[in-house]
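User: Please predict the structure of the protein below. I'd like the answer in C-alpha cell form so I can feed it into my own downstream comparison script.

Assistant: Understood. Taking the following sequence of 104 residues as input:
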Amino acid sequence: MPDALFCNSSAISAADRPRYRELTERMIQASQSTTELRDGYALQLDPSITLPEVAEWLAFERACCPFLHFTLELRPNDGPTILSLQIPHHPHAKAFLRAELHIP
C-alpha cells in the first residue's frame, strides 16, 4: 500500500503561516479553471496573482508537502499561467489535492 499523504506543517514557521494562508487563499481565488490530470490537477491562474506570489507559495508548499510534483507553464504572448500539481503513483492524489485546493 502506498505511503499516506501527510503534510509537515512544522516546515512552515509560525511567523510565516499567516503569509502562507494568505497566498493559499490567493491561489484558490486565482484558479480560473481546473483540468484533471491522471495523478493530479492543472490550474489555469488568473493574471491577478503575480509570478513572485506563485513562487513564494510554491516554496511553502514544497517545504511542507515534499511529495508534490509541480510544473509551472508560462504560455507565450501573455497567455495563461498553468500550474500543475501531481502526486505520481498514488491512488489518493486527486482526493488529497481536491481537499487542499478546494477543487469541487
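That's the full C-alpha cell string. The chain is about 35% helix and 25% strand.
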